[in-house]
Structure formats: structure tokens, C-alpha cells
Amino acid sequence: MVDAIHNRRARRAFQTKPIEDEKVEALIEAARLAPSCNNFQPWRLVFVKGEPALSETKAGMNRGNVWTTRAPLIIVVAAKEDDDCMLSDRRNYFLFGCGLAIGQLMLRATELGLVAHPIAGYDPAKVRAALGIPEPYIIITTVICGYPGGPEDLLSDKQKESERTRPERKPIGENIFLDRWANPYPSKG
């Protein structure tokens, strides 16, 4: 698992090679076993890999995400607020629960030699219509999945650069604290 954490990347260059059913089922199991408040499991995941659903879903992607058109699998994540814990101080846990499920799925994808790249750049109305997702559900994200690599001709120069080098992470202490908000966690390096 440590290797998956270190190797996971938000890559955009994909092969068009289909993902084997066994690997798709492993992704399903990883998300299915994620923890959730009171075990409510608020996530609803649509695994889109067949036609015409895949093409219709891809048609809902923003222009800057043209690279998604090479992916053989898109996972659409949806949930309803009232399908998870709703706490008295306005903390609705459904987004957190869905994030945990997708986090586990992403790490499992990395272990399987796949890329699982969640994006926000899509038209929720088009994706909803393409897949018949009922109105009470909020489409939280789409996760673009496939084997890494392939031509970079669909990528911008900035995206090509991010394929080559891992984006910088904030240094420990900038967003990690010890005991109190204003006390940066000491960095060992």
C-alpha cells in the first residue's frame, strides 16, 4: 500500500486498451469496502465502459479535458445528502464518505497498474442525462480510468509537463499542524 501511495499520480495520457473485468471488479471491491458513517455507504458508482454510454459520458467533458476521450472507463460518483450522517452543526458526511471510497479505489487502481484520475471538469447535466441518474442525486465527480501511457497529442503543454514530473506538494507545516492551528508540524527534512 505504501508503494501505491507514493506511485499514485493524476496522469492524463491513457492507452485505449480496455480494462479487464477482474480489475474492474477489484476496483468495485475497493470502493465497496471503504468506511462510512454508520456504514451507510452513501456512494452510488456508475462504471461506464460500454457504448453508447461511454461516448455520451465523454461528450459531457469540458474542452480542457479532451484527454478523457481515450479512457476506456469512467466512473461517475453520485450521492444524496440524506443517505449519510447529517450532524447537528451542518456537517453532512456524504461527501467525506464518497471521498473515502474513491481514495481506496484510486490506490487499488495504482496497485493494479491503472490510473484513476478524478476530475471536476464536466457538465453534470449532460452526464446525468447520459446515464439516467435521478435528480435527487448530486454528481460529485467523474473518475477517468485506464492504463497509463499512450500518445500525448491530446494534452496541453502544461499537462505534458505534469506527466513527466510529480507536482510539488506543500511542505509539512504549511497545511499540517501540531496541537494547535497556528503551530506548524515540525518538518524532519
Shape: globular
Distance between the termini: 23 Å
| Count of β-strands | 4
Task: Examine the secondary-structure arrangement and name the CATH architecture.
Answer: 3-Layer(aba) Sandwich
- Low-pLDDT segments: none
- The overall average pLDDT, rounded, is 88
Number of separate structural domains: 1
The CATH C-level class name: Alpha Beta
What Rg, in angstroms, do the CA atoms define?
Answer: 18 Å
* Portion of residues within helices: 25-40%
Number of helices: 6
Q: How much of the residues is beta strand, in percent?
A: 5-15%
How can the largest sheet be summarized?
4 strands, antiparallel
Q: Strand pairing plus helix content: what structural class? A: alpha+beta
Give the spatial strand order of the biggest sheet.
1-2-4-3
Order of helices and strands: HHEHEHEHEH
CATH superfamily: NADH Oxidase
Determine the CATH topology. Answer: NADH Oxidase
Describe the structure.
The model has no long low-confidence stretch (mean pLDDT 88). The protein is of the alpha+beta class. The two termini are 23 Å apart. Helix content is 31%, strand content 14%. It has helices spanning 2-7, 21-32, 53-58, 94-111, 124-131, 157-164; strands at residues 44-48, 73-79, 115-119, 138-146.
Summarize the structure.
This protein has 189 residues and is an alpha+beta fold.
